[in-house]
Amino acid sequence: MVVHGRTRWAHRDYHAIVRPNYQWNWAQVRSVTCSAADAGGDQYPVSEVTGPGFAPGNLSDVEDDALDRCYSEAGQDAGCTLVDCIGN
Q1: How many Å is the Cα radius of gyration of the chain?
Q2: Rounded CA separation 19/16 (Å)
Q3: Which of 10, 76, 78, 85 has the most neighbouring CB atoms within 10 Å?
Q4: What would the pLDDT profile of 9-41 be if each residue is shown by its tens digit?
Q5: Burial (CB count within 10 angstroms: exposed 0-12, middle 13-18, buried 19+), residue 36
């Protein structure tokens, strides 16, 4: 679990990736888990507790955290890709 905006992984620029559009009931989402996978298929999940006002615009932060974790922990693997996000 990470605190919004306070991760230990260095942030990279992910403007070129395609981000899915989730059709969640955003008012009921209390936590989000996003996972990224390295070129070998190992997954790197990141979970974040959400609060009032969390919306689709905030999801990219959690997606980026998962990609940052993958890149960092997989030895700077440029093949890291976003797998999925789950809202609870």
Answers
A1: 12
A2: 9
A3: 85
A4: 777 777 678 888 899 999 999 999 999 999 999
A5: buried
